[in-house]
Amino acid sequence: xGFYESVARPLLFRLDPETAHGAAMSIIASGLAGAREFxxxxxxxxxxxxxxxxxLGLAAGxxxxxxxxxxxxxxxxxxxxxxxVTPRPQPGNPRPRLFRLPADKALINRMGxxxxxxxxxxxxxxxxxxxxxxxxxxxxxxxxxxxxxPEDYRESxxxxxxxxxxxxxxxxxxxxxxLRQLQEKGPxxxxxxxxxxxxxTPPLFVKIAPDLEWDALDEVLEVAREARLTGLIATNTTxxxxxxxxxxxxxGGLSGAPLRAKSNSVLxxxxxxxxxxxxxGVGGIMSSDxxxxxxxxxxxxxxxxxxxxxxxxxxxxxxxxxxxxxxxxEGAQSLQxxxxxxxxxxxRGT
Length: 350
Ligand SMILES: Cc1cc2nc3c(=O)[nH]c(=O)nc-3n(C[C@H](O)[C@H](O)[C@H](O)COP(=O)(O)O)c2cc1C
What we know:
With 350 residues, the chain is of the alpha/beta class. 35% of the residues lie in helices and 16% in strands. The protein contains 11 helices and 13 strands. The strands form 3 sheets. Strands 3-4-7-8-9-10-12-13 form an 8-stranded parallel β-barrel. Strands 5-6-11 form a 3-stranded antiparallel β-sheet, with no helix packed on it. A two-stranded antiparallel sheet has the order 1-2. α4 links the parallel β7 (134-138) and β8 (166-170). α3 (118-127) packs parallel to α4 and α4 packs parallel to α5. It binds flavin mononucleotide.
């Protein structure tokens, strides 16, 4: 057992989860969290004109306010996604709003987009050098009526447009009332058009929920085509409670190991139906085999949140070491060679 599992994690897990997160973020932002980077030519790739040293990113919601941007590369990540950022600052839901489910290697959260707001995040990003691609995840302020949601996304994008390598329209958090209705074709197209009015060029993704019915998912794919999205991020947390040994009865989105199967079935469907999209697979990565599986199911990139809380600061590098070792064992020379290998033969290699 390493230092994190034997000493740091037990100490952090004695604190309430949000206090522990705050403490961990202070340590990380101050540069004190040491971990090794892992580099391998097997893991490098260029996507939408950006160079990714490896395919594992830090998922949105961890560094919501861009307070530790220069540190994530040192912790092994190949890219990060800051946010969700709302146009104006807002406190999010009342505490407690984050719950650990250690027996199931899971979390439940109902943070509700606590955000310092787009101006504060913009000034931090302006001052920081990440050394890896930075995505900026955009959301709606709670007080904004759904019909005015496009204004919110446009306003945040206006303030942040020169500061991200890609942008994400987050319409899949379960913790902002009504937000997930914005995954419907009409509202989603309006949001994307509002962003594109400001600047049509930056790489644009939509982050989707794992709880969409298949028809609704196909509608998102139509939007992706019509709006010429760069890609999709699949998935956010689930409102489902499948796979838990005990349901703690807390409202919010479930993440971690119990989300993996659901998230992967969404990823597989998208990869099979829309091979032209860049796919970011997120949900339930706890091991290097889970990371490999995302890529085999068609993901170009992957992200982790809950698995990193349980695995600690060395876990990104450990997952990448495992991924590269498995690729070497299988004789794969690049991520492209394994991408989609678990999909139906007819879509493979497209
Ligand atoms: C505490 C917490 C806060 C999150 N906040 C956000 C957020 O602000 N925006 C977002 O798009 N996703 C957010 N997520 C979802 C994660 O980015 C990710 O999609 C989800 O947790 C599944 O990945 P995982 O199983 O590796 O945790 C959050 C997740 C957690 C656990």
